[in-house]
């Protein structure tokens, strides 16, 4: 029997799961990947994630937040609506929020404004932050330091040693995805993951994205799903030179305490 492991980042409300969402959850549970934390990326998506999670008490949880891509859609009512969602028992973090200067789907000043608003909301509610950063490290780190953020996970970390060191010094947790299974893009991550203390490390699929490149049996549609988290766990354990069971137990304990589930 495998130790249960928690997938801290699943975009389960993504359209690619519309046809078989329940089966995806069943396959995850069959592989002892539970609970799953569904990522909220907009008001509508966060509402859908919270609603769906409520159908599986104790098995599914959700975050509520506005991704930087969606910051341009925020208005005077957005934070009040997020606050309402955050009051639900299945909602365990504020996010996915942060900065993304790679795509610039929202103007950068708008991204910064609504990122700071969500940080303040998380403080007010005493909830952890589920963070996104892409090609925006200096502004991202500055806003987090300015607001004295401590209780946060940098989701889908793929950055540099300097960035990792800064996040760890700020007291953050780090989420590692199937990026580490990519021998081309993820090579540096295989080295860096050893520098993450076990009590700060969490694992995630970011499904349906970032399907591990080295899966033996690749899904026909290329879609990632939570059941593949065991493969990511195996790679992480290999990279840090620890038994799989120990890494499973540790990342699960860390995620359970971080999200208070």
Mean pLDDT: 96
- Strand order within the widest sheet? 1-2-3-4-5-6-7-8
Low-confidence stretches: none
Largest sheet: 8 strands, parallel
How many strands?
8
Specify the number of helices: 9
Structural class: alpha/beta
- Written as H for each helix and E for each strand, in order along the chain, the element string is EHEHEHEHEHEHEHEHH
User: What proportion of the residues is helical, as a percent range?
Assistant: 25-40%
Description of the structure:
This protein is an alpha/beta fold. Helix content is 39%, strand content 16%. The chain is built from nine helices and eight strands. It has an eight-stranded parallel beta sheet with strand order 1-2-3-4-5-6-7-8. Helix 4 links the parallel strand 4 and strand 5. Helix 2 runs parallel beside helix 3 and helix 4 packs parallel to helix 5. The longest helix has 18 residues. It is globular.
Short recap of the structure:
The chain is of the alpha/beta class and 261 residues long. It has 9 helices and 8 strands.
Keywords for this structure?
261 residues, alpha/beta, 8-stranded parallel sheet
List the helices and strands and how they pair.
Elements: E1 5-10, H1 21-30, E2 33-38, H2 43-53, E3 60-64, H3 78-86, E4 91-100, H4 108-125, E5 129-134, H5 137-146, E6 152-154, H6 161-169, E7 173-176, H7 187-192, E8 201-203, H8 229-240, H9 244-259
Parallel strand pairs: 1-2, 2-3, 3-4, 4-5, 5-6, 6-7, 7-8
């Amino acid at each position: 029997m495998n130790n249960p492991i928690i997938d801290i980042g699943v975009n389960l409300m993504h359209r690619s799961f519309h046809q078989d969402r329940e089966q995806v959850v069943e396959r995850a549970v069959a592989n002892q990947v539970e609970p799953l934390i569904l990522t909220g990326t907009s008001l509508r998506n966060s509402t859908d994630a919270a609603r769906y999670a409520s159908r599986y008490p104790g098995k599914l949880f959700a975050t509520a937040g506005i991704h930087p891509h969606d910051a341009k859609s925020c208005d005077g009512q957005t934070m009040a609506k997020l606050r309402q969602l955050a009051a639900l028992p299945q909602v365990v973090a504020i996010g996915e929020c942060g900065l993304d200067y790679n795509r610039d789907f929202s103007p950068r000043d708008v991204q910064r404004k609504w990122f700071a608003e969500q940080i303040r909301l998380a403080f007010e509610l005493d909830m952890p932050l589920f963070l996104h950063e892409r090609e925006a490290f200096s502004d991202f780190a500055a806003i987090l330091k300015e607001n004295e953020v401590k209780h946060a996970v940098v989701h889908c970390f793929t950055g540099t040693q300097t960035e990792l060191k800064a996040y760890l010094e700020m007291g953050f947790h780090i989420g590692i995805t199937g990026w580490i299974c990519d021998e081309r893009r993820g090579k540096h991550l295989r080295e860096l993951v050893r520098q993450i203390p076990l009590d700060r490390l969490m694992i995630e699929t970011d499904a349906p994205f970032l399907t591990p490149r080295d899966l033996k049996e690749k899904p026909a549609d290329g879609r990632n799903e939570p059941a593949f988290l065991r493969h990511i766990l195996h790679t992480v354990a290999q990279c840090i030179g620890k038994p799989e069971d120990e890494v499973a137990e540790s990342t699960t304990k860390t995620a359970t305490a971080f999200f208070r589930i």
